[in-house]
Amino acid sequence: MQKLVIRGGRRLEGEITVQGAKNSALPIAAATLLCDGVSRLENCPRLSDVYAACRILTNLGCHCEMQGNVVTVDASSMHASEIPEQFMCEMRSSIIFLGAVLGRMGSCTLGYPGGCELGPRPINLHLQALRRMGVKIREENGVLYCTTPNGLHGAKIHLRFPSVGATENILLAAVTASGETTITNAAREPEIVDLVCYLRACGACISGEGTGTICISGVKRLSGCTYRIMPDRIVAATWLAAVAATGGEILLRQVRCADMASILDVFEEMNCHVSAGEDSIRFHTGKNLHPVGLLKTMPYPGFPTDAQAIMMAALCRANGTTLVEETIFENRFRHVDALVKMGADIQVAGRVAAVHGVKNLHGAAVEATDLRGGAAMMIAGLCASGETIIHDVYHIDRGYETPEEVLRSIGAEIIRK
Ligand code: UD1
What we know:
single chain; alpha/beta; UDP-n-acetylglucosamine1-carboxyvinyl-transferase, Chain; four-stranded mixed sheet; elongated; binds uridine-diphosphate-N-acetylglucosamine
């Protein structure tokens, strides 16, 4: 198992071009199988989850290859509608293939996604919505058998919670279904908007993305196109948090500041200086990091759950107390033990963590518990004195392209062993 070894305490300074967004590349990769002709997806991050999505497409009979950061998919030879269990285990977000496979093949068999490191990940909202669109679902021994005896049809769907995954699955099923679909209380995340932009470029008829009401008018066919995946706002936030924690300055290139408003607001409240350009951010830290009172994760446009752990790592060095409340996932404080081992002062009570800032963190040997939790440990290691060893780096590799190279390029002392 690989590990990251960090010698902390160095000021970070320089420029980083931010990678493409994993959470946009994955649903768009699933969407390619709805299209005639070839789709060419540019700016795809080279990550294990993206490779897993390519393997799923290949297994379904599509021709899929990744060269550099470009994924090319030709779905004309697709012949299968089953996603074997090994893929469902490998990548939790493989559930977003369900809507697309149903749209293309009219049926789909797939393993029931279990829980994950963040706690239970139910899909009841996905399944309820698909049933309204004419999907019959039978579950047997953890396998879901989904069929559409009378075809897929549009429906009015109200989501109890603006689930990102459910919104994506409904969109993917609805674009080639007969009739109109309306989703109310839809997720408004920028990655949903990116998926819609891709689908529209392929010929889909959709309006309202980025708002709580999305309308989809089914079309007969979609044709593949060339599309550039949006920048990863969580990766961008991670590099900013690393710089905030170490007291440096940075120019981020290829970012969309508007998508990051809730994150940038928090950095400003922490006494960091943010100067947002059209597709860049200049950022430097003030003398001391300030606490922010209450930091609460919310669906977009609120503060993202994916940025909770990394922001907590930076807040460990603030001169006061921040309450961090996680409202999206039940089990998303698993990084706290590692931060405490490194000298952080954090108390957890249910879904709230009280983070009392300390002057210094110190290096320790820790294990990445999940993707963003591992990134939080990386940030803590960068500002801690001495050596930090992060085991189980594969969690971090699910979301960050060669993180050690990126961080070295701005002055960090970090190697992979
Ligand atoms: C979530 C995040 C997304 C993040 C991703 C990866 C939100 C709203 N979503 O998306 O920003 O990028 O994790 O970390 O912040 N739920 C149900 N039933 C369902 C589906 C979801 O009860 O059928 C509940 C979940 O248990 C959870 C919440 O809704 O509490 C968030 O779910 P959802 O947005 O669907 O999760 P992801 O799509 O994984």
